[in-house]
From TrEMBL:
Protein name: DUF7924 domain-containing protein
Origin: domain of life: Eukaryota
PANTHER family associated with the record: PTHR42470:SF2, VAST DOMAIN-CONTAINING PROTEIN (PTHR42470)
Ranges where the DUF7924 domain occurs: 81-300
InterPro entries, per database record: DUF7924
Pfam families in the record: DUF7924
Length: 319
């Protein structure tokens, strides 16, 4: 509805303090972020020795295991190019609506449709990780992310793991949380310029990995996480996508974090398999995440029911 001609148009203008804040990706456009990450032992590159052999095999399985694509979608041959062109100059929300579900389908919707093993998963869309302990000065806000529900853990497991991290928690944040409902986040999807989305995903997934590494250090099993995949991420725009694996490297008392490109492809180009990311993501939910959850729980189960507080992870003692 338009204002009446005689109406003062300034009446309809929002005051500056109510203008939308700058886009969440703005802070990641600065090239110096790579140096900041390095100071935190996080690197946007591969470790020279790469992933462990078992993790490489996992990536191959997730890429190749068959999944049925949607019967009808905007990736159909007759509309995929028009879809890409239509959203090319639109905002991120439009790309998220039309493209992202065909790159990274919803874990919770898959669970609602009968995939009961995915009931342990919790997702968020464009939600600020207000409960996270961010690596940098900004809290992450992934376009889409997945972790585990609090209710996926038994009451005893939840008590043990929260007590273990108690001295690192504040009244509002926890090392194991992203949002108020998501624990141990392990998948992140970002939309936009790849140089920027890579930085966003590294930030997101380093937060998720740190909690797992600290947990396994606490039960003297840190060797198990060395060069093993602890998280995945996807970056995409209106025509291209890339899949990345994130992993820690244990160097004595120091932990460094690296990433490895698993696949990069143009889904609008018929020379590539446009369903690569869709298939990978569904396999990640069904194959890797349930196993990852059980692995995390196995470490939690080794925790005693009480820890002394006020000590570093490596110095905790039974009480």
């Amino acid at each position: 509805m338009s204002p009446a001609p005689e109406t003062d148009i300034s009446f309809f203008v929002l005051p500056k303090d109510r203008w939308p804040k700058e886009h969440k990706s703005v802070q990641y456009r600065d090239h110096s972020w790579s140096l900041v990450y390095n100071k935190h032992k996080t690197f946007i590159c591969e470790f020279p020795e790469g992933l462990a052999e078992g993790s490489l095999g996992l990536c191959k399985e997730l890429l190749e295991r068959e999944q049925l694509p949607p019967r009808v979608s905007l990736f159909d041959d007759e509309v995929i190019h028009d879809t890409s062109i239509r959203v090319q100059r639109r905002n991120e929300t439009m790309i998220f609506r039309d493209i992202t579900p065909l790159i990274a389908p919803s874990a919770e919707l898959m669970a609602l449709r009968g995939d009961e093993q995915l009931d342990i998963l919790c997702e968020s869309t464009n939600e600020i990780w207000t409960y996270s302990q961010q690596l940098l000065q900004y809290q992450p806000q992934p376009s889409y992310s997945v972790g585990f529900k609090a209710l996926a853990f038994t009451e005893l497991q939840f008590t043990k793991v929260t007590e273990f991290f108690e001295d690192r928690c504040t009244s509002e944040t926890s090392p194991i949380m992203g949002t108020s409902h998501m624990f141990f986040p392990c998948f992140s999807c970002e939309i936009g310029c790849f140089e920027v989305t890579r930085r966003q995903n590294v930030h997101n997934m380093t937060i998720g990995m740190r909690a797992v590494v600290d947990l396994f250090r606490g039960v003297k099993r840190e060797a198990e996480v060395h060069r093993q995949i602890l998280a995945f991420s996807i970056s995409h725009d209106h025509r291209q996508a890339e899949i990345v694996a994130h992993y820690p490297v244990i160097l004595g008392e120091t932990t460094e974090y690296y990433q490895q490109l698993i696949a990069s492809f143009i889904f609008t180009d018929s020379r590539y398999d446009k369903w690569t990311a869709y298939r990978f993501t569904k396999n990640m939910y069904e194959v890797w995440m349930p196993a990852q959850f059980q692995w995390i729980c196995s470490a939690i189960n080794q925790l005693p029911e009480g820890w002394s507080c006020g000590k570093d992870i490596g110095q905790r003692e039974f009480v």
